[in-house]
Amino acid sequence: MRALAILNPNATTTSSRTRDVVLAALSSDLDLEVAETTHRGHAAELSRQARRDGVGLVVAVGGDGTVNEVANGVLDPASPATTVPDVAIIPGGSTNVLARNLGIPESPVEATGLFLDAWRSGRRQRIGLGRLDGRYFTFAAGFGFDADVIRAVEDQRERGRTSTVPLYVRTAVRRFFQQPERRHGSIELVADDGEPVGQLSVVIVTNCTPWTYLGARPLRPTPNADFHGGLDVFGLAGLRLARTLWHVGQMATRRGPRGRDVVSLHDSGHMVLTTDEPQPVQVDGDYIGDRTRVEIAAAPAALRVAY
């Protein structure tokens, strides 16, 4: 089987020695080519070309951003190839949300062992994704405050800071108090052609749970989300300090946030988010710009993962 391993050389938790061990193990079972990413979007370009070339498997060695790009590359509808490669995930980022939600070990070596066992036995799983304005996300998309935090963290990473849990926490606190209006938001949500829900400050859309992790602690704004269902939504009307802290605490429980200022939707197929002033948008933890309107849809059983 022809396979392409796409490595992010800047992945937070993968050393060159570990990558050598992983690649040696993969090469024992696969006709393996290896490519390192050099710029943002490169993993998507490489995966898109792999599909055109008839490669049967793309292995993402990196964090959630690398996995997102690989998914978008192999699923690119503009590709003339009819067969979509399988995907494998060897975690190497700081959080690895998708891998952890699938039960893939955080250790790259153990994850490689799990994949090889799945590959030899023919074990594959199809998972549902989401699409935001045509871009797939593998676990979550956000509009508003959470994307604003990610944008600020990315600014600091470009200046040389390392992505860590304390960096995210400090940035979230700082950006919270810098919001121009915390009593109510400006985002309007219309899901499945239902009634509009307005004045939201943050909207998080997921296809699985947890949404993210603070170290070992999972956060579940949408505790009923499932890879085999539609999309779940958490929305928060306003960012009042006491209520926001309360809801963040609820995310650490299995029931998730609840209350009169919380919007919770389960198993939605389509939604539109609009706002008068541009708001930041993120997919799978990557800031992708500011927009006044986004359209999000479920993509059932879109990706086949070997694990």
Automatic annotation (TrEMBL):
Coiled coil: none
Species name: Haloactinopolyspora alba
A GO MF term: ATP-dependent diacylglycerol kinase activity
Keyword field: Kinase, Transferase
Taxonomic superkingdom: Bacteria
PANTHER family linked: LIPID KINASE YEGS, SPHINGOSINE KINASE
Residue span, DAGKc domain: 1-136
Membership in a protein family: Belongs to the diacylglycerol/lipid kinase family.
Keyword Repeat attached: no
Cofactor(s) needed for function: Mg(2+)
Organism ancestry: Bacteria, Bacillati, Actinomycetota, Actinomycetes, Jiangellales
Name of the protein in its database record: Diacylglycerol kinase family enzyme
Gene Ontology terms: cellular component: plasma membrane
